[in-house]
Design a protein that fits this description.
Elements (H helix, E strand, L loop, with lengths): L23 H14 L3 E3 L1 E3 L2 E3 L4 E6 L2 E10 L3 H18 L4 H16 L3 H12 L3 H28 L9 E8 L4 E5 L5 H13 L4 E4 L5 H13 L7 E3 L4 H9 L4 E7 L2 H14 L8 E5 L4 E5 L5 H13 L9 E7 H17 L18 H15 L4 E5 L3 E2 L5 E2 L2 E5 L5 H4 L6 E7 L4 H11 L2 E2 L1 E5 L3 H10 L6 E4 L16 E2 L10 H4 L4 E8 L14
Parallel strand pairs: 1-5, 7-8, 7-10, 8-9, 10-11, 12-13, 12-20, 13-18, 17-18, 20-21
Antiparallel strand pairs: 2-3, 4-5, 6-23, 14-17, 15-16, 19-22
The structure holds nicotinamide-adenine-dinucleotide and 5-oxo-L-norvaline (A1AUG).
Length: 543
């Protein structure tokens, strides 16, 4: 056991590479895309470090070319879920007792491997499997994944250094940061490889062992993560990788006595179903489980008449359509003053005419495919609702085609009714709805922004009038957990804008900050009395 005190310096964010034509990173990525596109791999479950093949198979396809199979994966049944739980419970016994700096070193080594040796692999797998373009993959599967790992090692060192005071000479007080008693269930979404990694690694770094259910539409990149964790020295059984049906896996997990916490990112509906299931099983557990979930959003852009037209138009186009709007933070409803609407529309129209939609391997495509057929059908269903009502009209896009890939043209809906369904419900696709308001009704419109949707994830105000900005800041105090001034509501960076929201958007435990890590510890306060009293009486009783 090493008894030294280690301190990690605050890291810097991983620089985003440009992938400009002929840059070394571009050439390496193109070669990796070709290599991955020309093979079909077999993805097993990984339990206690062992590869398990159940023969119950699913397919990993490219969303932008869904006839192209990249991999087959094996699905867990009840037996494998129980094996994964046992492996995690067993592995945790040694893991929690090694010096924390060893755990931090493994995390930092994972970051280093992704930054250099496996950057192209992680980006190519995310591009092909999740249909992200090179820039969107780079900021996710390279930079954000790396940042989560490096910053969490630093935050962990700060948490552990936080010790209580011992104000008198006869007492020594200290705090021991134990992991949770049991295992943690990580349930991860398709849309960010970084989130998948972080949902597993933040409990792990704090001494916990994890059973990981990845999203079936992100299995390729998630499987490569497992391999990198192993190469970095993560011991067997600390993360147990079990793709499969959520309902089969969830049922076994939530009924288990050793279930100690769930680290989830995904839809509000799924999270609510977990919460009910956990409540139903409460008497079975050893401890109250930690329930951490970041969920949906209906993120707004509120525009004041003093705002700059071009800045607003760019924020709307990038905020709504990057990664096909499949970000929980995507700009999906905007409120524009009447005096600005035609200018904003004109500017957006120029950009939208320029934007190309297609395969990720063609680097000139800004927009790629949505994740799968179910998403395609759900998103286009909303577009059809807009087409078939008097309450709204489609002003850009509105076309789609799933014959080869799940492609939807960036779509802008103008809603006369500020409560039209696409102003209220999360669509999770390339659809932005705009409501135009009378310039004089700025404050009333802020009330509308606050009360229109059950979510409170991200939002922004565009204004060059500081008094107006301040009014929006106050009136929208609880409307967003991440609030932006003169910026799009997406693109939170680890260490800069800790991420998460409340209301129906989750428990707001702020991924990418110490606030998330403290959910994965079970602290023990220790008081040692150096000179214990030998008389039971209070001093005044001796009078
Ligand atoms: N707030 C955030 O930080 C954040 C970030 C990214 C995505 N999201 C949200 O995620 C959603 C999109 O992601 P998604 O489509 O992957 O979400 P989803 O809820 O469909 O799935 C998330 C995960 O839960 C699993 N799952 C579903 N039902 C289950 C069950 N009964 N038992 C166990 N596991 C189950 C899925 O297989 C997947 O791994 C959007 O609503 C988006 O807003 C939120
Ligand atoms: N870090 C992301 C949040 C991920 C949601 O899907 C952003 O702010 O765009």
């Amino acid at each position: 056991m090493n008894n030294s005190v280690f301190r990690f310096e605050k890291p810097k964010n991983e620089p985003v590479l440009s992938y400009a034509p002929n840059s070394p990173e571009r050439l390496e990525l193109v070669a990796e895309l070709e290599r991955m596109s020309s093979q079909q791999i077999d993805i097993p479950l990984i339990i206690g470090g062992k590869e398990i093949r159940t023969g119950n198979l699913g397919k990993v396809v490219m969303p932008h070319d869904h006839g192209h199979v990249l991999a087959t994966y094996h699905m867990a049944g009840e037996k494998e879920v129980r094996m994964a739980i046992e492996a995690a419970v067993e592995a945790r016994k040694k893991w929690e007792n090694i010096p924390w700096v060893e755990r931090a070193s493994i995390a930092i080594r994972v970051a280093e491997l992704i930054a250099k040796k496996y950057r192209a692999v992680m980006n190519a797998a995310t591009m092909l499997g999740q249909s992200k373009n090179a820039f969107q993959a780079e900021i996710d599967s390279a930079c954000e994944t790396i940042d989560f790992l490096r910053f969490n090692a630093y935050y962990m060192s700060q948490i552990y250094a936080d010790q209580p005071m011992s104000p008198t000479t006869d007492v020594v007080n200290r705090m021991e940061y134990r992991p949770l008693e049991g295992f943690v269930f990580a349930v991860t979404p398709f849309n960010f490889t970084a989130i998948a990694s972080n949902l597993c690694m933040s409990p792990v770094i704090m001494g916990n062992a994890v059973v990981w259910k990845p999203a079936t539409t992100a299995i390729l990149s998630n499987y490569y993560l497992m391999q990198i964790y192993k190469e970095a020295g993560l011991p067997d059984g600390i993360i147990n990788f079990i793709p499969g049906k959520g309902s089969v896996i969830g049922k076994e997990i939530f009924a288990h006595r050793e279930f100690a916490g769930v680290h989830f990112t995904g839809s509000t509906w799924t999270f609510n179903s977990f919460w009910s299931e956990i409540a139903r099983n409460l008497p079975n557990y050893r401890s109250y489980p930690k329930i951490v979930g970041e969920t949906g959003g209906k993120d707004f852009v509120m525009v004041h008449p003093s705002a700059d037209v071009q800045q607003v138009a760019v924020a709307l186009v990038r905020g709504a359509f990057e990664f096909q709007g499949q970000k929980c933070s995507a700009a999906s409803r905007a409120y524009i003053p009447k005096s600005m609407w035609y200018a904003v529309k004109d500017s957006m129209g120029k950009m939208l005419t320029d934007i190309k939609v297609g395969d990720v391997r063609n680097f000139s495509n800004f927009v790629n495919a949505v994740i799968d057929e179910a998403a395609f059908d759900s998103i286009t269903g909303y577009i059809e609702k807009a087409r078939n009502t008097k309450d709204a009209e489609i002003v850009f896009g509105g076309t789609y085609d799933k014959s080869k890939g799940y492609f939807i043209q960036p779509t802008v809906i103008l809603a006369n009714d500020p409560h039209f369904v696409t102003m209220e419900e999360e669509i999770f696709g390339p659809v932005l709805t705009i409501h135009v308001y009378e310039d004089a009704k700025f404050e009333e419109t802020l009330e509308l922004v606050d009360s229109t949707s059950p979510y409170a994830l991200t939002g922004s105000i565009f204004s060059n009038d500081r008094y107006a900005t301040e009014v929006a800041f106050e009136k929208l105090k609880y409307a967003a957990g991440n609030f932006y001034i003169n910026d799009k509501p997406t693109g939170a960076v680890v260490g800069q804008q800790p991420f998460g929201g409340a209301r129906a958007s989750g428990t707001n435990d702020k991924a990418g900050s110490y606030l998330n890590l403290i959910r994965w510890t079970n602290p023990r306060s220790i008081k040692e009395t150096l000179n214990p009293p030998t008389d039971y009486r209070y001093p005044f009783l001796a009078e």
